[in-house]
Specification:
single chain, 102 residues, mainly alpha, 67% helix, globular, 6 helices
């Protein structure tokens, strides 16, 4: 559980403090490097970072990556129901993409 919190903190800290996920003080790399298979990291990056930067293509790329992952794949940090939730939320975000980009 500690690694999950550390990974999530690396994303949120980088976003809140620095405005991006590539410059997290005290933590090497970024959240995607620390948790490359964490579906929720890419979904969160799409909803927070890519919308702020008005990067519609990156938004779609991250969310489509989430949707392309097998939710049944064993991940020590993400159960099947949680993977399905993140994927459904990602699909909903894509279905309403214009709501995120004025």
């Amino acid at each position: 559980m500690g690694k999950i919190i550390e990974k999530l903190w690396s994303f949120l800290h980088g976003y809140i403090i620095q405005g991006d996920t590539y410059t997290v003080p005290g933590i090497p790399g970024n959240s995607i490097e620390l948790g490359p298979e964490m579906l929720n990291f890419r979904r969160t990056r799409a909803s927070l970072l890519h919308t702020q930067n008005k990067n519609r293509d990156a938004f779609k790329k991250d969310l489509n990556w989430v949707l392309s992952q097998d939710p049944k794949k064993e991940r020590h940090y993400l159960s099947y129901p949680w993977s399905i939730f993140v994927q459904r939320n990602s699909q909903d975000m894509l279905d309403h993409i214009d709501d995120y980009f004025d």
